[in-house]
């Protein structure tokens, strides 16, 4: 069944009246066929200023009007993956995932293929298999010519195809594209986005960015609204705190603390929660009572406040977060249970710990059916939790996760994940067996071969360079010399034409023996 991969953030927008009006006015015009130009909204501002809350506001309006939302976002670790945010946008557009719905029917590859062939012109039918690169499943069968295409050619044809699909779909039914964290989006995605805002006026596009640079090439028309989010005034910050604490007023003894927020809503929210959870204040009859020593508060940064919050969690909840932080921002319950470093009689409590962490607003459910999927509330929380792991704990967990991923069927096994976890273990362990190093090199090589097809030379080169670095940890031998020579040759061949490079890569990788095959 279709998965609901996005849940609306908690939180009430305080202030931002002009920005909300801009969003409301343009969303209201999306279903109106008489309005040909739907417009572009750019939400720009520093971290924690409220960009995501405004996106959530737009999503709620769309949901109310039953307007399809196609949502994508950039990622710090996906900046070099071509067209990364368009993956989820296409899945939303094709009905593979749904941003709100919890139930739907499966998407059958043949049905999707037939539907898209009716949508696009015959001249583009041969490019449809390239969508496999972005849909994470083989919905279309590729021929030899398509398999041998260079990364640059694949991305070029994909960009043209996606633009055509967006235009055709927009003529049939209105939808909104939302892309968050544009500052972490690859250049190919930015180029496609610029073309969409310039050439397809029938789609409302909403983007967020911390910096102005990614937005410079977006079409600037009379219907482009550039909202530069400024710090909130003191009154709005106070209203945020009142909303978080559910009180009607603040005593002077704590009001001054919120002047250090610099008008950033996220900081105000964290300070309010920190005061409450550390028992410095209590709420009684909608009034704040100071019960602790304010001088003991560590409010130097959001990270410090998160650390203080984590310190108060029971050990079981802390361990769940720590294990999950090694898996990643999004993690499945199955993976967590498999790698959790305790006996089975202790694992039975994990469900309760996760429920408690969701109640506390530290985790949230991402999927509603099948194997439960969870995400951290935000990426800052993930980074802080991971930093709290001891050196030995990180290595042990990375190894547990790698071993679990190796046990998965080949159909769902991801060599890039295996390469990442095993490489992390090797780079942080003094005495490591040669067999593990060789295994990691094989995973890195296979990941580079996949990347050469899906992402191109730049990503493939990163994997190969990492593999070459690992060969230095091997003792001098004919095997080490052969590996170093072959990897050096592969890196050199990365400058050749895409087709030739791919043939060399596949030929070389097919000759590697070991557990990866």
> Any idea of the CATH topology of the largest domain?
Rossmann fold
The domain tally reads: 4
Cα gyration radius (Å):
25 Å
Fraction of residues in H or I helices: 40-55%
- What's the CATH architecture of the largest domain? 3-Layer(aba) Sandwich
Mean pLDDT: 81
Topology at a glance:
Blueprint: E1 3-4, H1 17-29, E2 40-44, H2 51-64, E3 68-73, H3 84-94, E4 97-98, H4 109-119, H5 132-135, H6 144-147, H7 151-172, E5 175-180, H8 187-199, E6 204-209, E7 224-228, H9 234-245, H10 252-255, H11 265-277, E8 281-284, E9 287-290, H12 302-311, H13 315-327, E10 330-332, H14 333-339, H15 344-347, H16 350-359, E11 363-365, E12 373-376, H17 379-387, H18 391-406, H19 415-427, H20 434-454, H21 457-471, H22 478-493, H23 498-510
Parallel strand pairs: 1-4, 2-6, 2-7, 3-5, 5-6
Antiparallel strand pairs: 8-9, 10-12, 11-12
